[in-house]
Amino acid sequence: MARIAFVGLGNMGRPMAANLVKADEEVTGFDLSPEACERFAGAGGEVAETAAQAAAGAEIVITMLPAGRHVSEAYLGEAGLLAAARPGTLFIDCSTIDVATARAVAAAAESAGMAMLDAPVSGGVGGAEAATLTFMVGGDEDAFTRARPILEKMGRNIVHAGGPGNGQAAKICNNMILGISMIGVSEAFVLAEKLGLDHQKLFDISSTASGQCWSLTTYCPVPGPVPTSPANRDYRPGFSAEMMLKDLRLAQDAASSSAASTPLGAEAAQVYSLFVNEGNGGVDFSGVVRFLRGEG
Ligand code: NAD
Known about the structure:
Blueprint lengths: L2 E5 L5 H10 L3 E5 L3 H9 L3 E2 L3 H6 L3 E4 L4 H8 L5 H4 L5 E4 L5 H13 L3 E4 L2 E2 L1 H7 L2 E6 L2 H11 L3 E8 L3 H30 L3 H8 L7 H4 L23 H18 L4 H18 L7 H6 L3
Parallel strand pairs: 1-2, 1-4, 2-3, 4-5, 5-6, 8-9
Antiparallel strand pairs: 7-8
The structure holds nicotinamide-adenine-dinucleotide (NAD).
The site of nicotinamide-adenine-dinucleotide has 27 residues, from helix 4, strand 7, helix 7 and helix 12.
């Protein structure tokens, strides 16, 4: 049994921490929101009064926070997690944040004598609840080996992507593929509609031809061909357009700071920005097909 501090008990963090409690780990949680703390206590977790207090007694500290600035604020400075923890503590940041902040915080952890991994996830709230998340992990091999048995209690696929920041790099590269491919598949269905080609016919042909991809065969953006896709439940997420836009923007920040050419990634970010600005932030990202059709 490991002593684990879990900071950030929101939509993702709470079920992840609850799975560690279920697996008989000794988990002390903290969130700035008293409501989030109460819900975690309801799932059988201990709650600390501050993040620093949770970290002080822990062997492993896991964070699941909204964005890079929250991670910097939580880790750095005199009242931060790095200052509060004992040397040798393993930090695992599961938030989806920019690569530059992930690398800066990992360097600060190393200078303070701590091991740190970035370990963003895919699989959404459903995956967090079912403990079937995929973890994309950046950091050194020893830290990865230490973290693996804990991550396995919250997820199914645990992939070591390389050095610090590479977990975040893998996450944004993957989601840039996903954003672009969802727009591509949606455009094909919109064109098919104009040409009088049936959705199911296009699906049957393209799902076994060179247009095959996850956005088509697992998450089809029109109702019918894949009964489990959000298109069949009025585009309730799933994975919201707002989250997709966040990840596409992170990819664009990384592309600009590393001088990578990603013209389609940039276009996808623009398309999702327009879609979200029309009030669709909470809609599943596959709902972009409606926007491409010109529906309000
Ligand atoms: P959320 O907003 O529900 O939860 C974040 C929690 O962090 C909130 O409860 C907030 O009060 C808390 N918080 C913020 N700053 C804090 C601090 N300094 N100390 C303690 N608590 C603090 O967000 P979420 O949906 O749980 O997402 C968390 C991360 O996971 C994000 O980076 C998101 O991009 C990523 N993610 C989310 C999903 C999803 O489907 N929700 C899927 C994959 C990845």
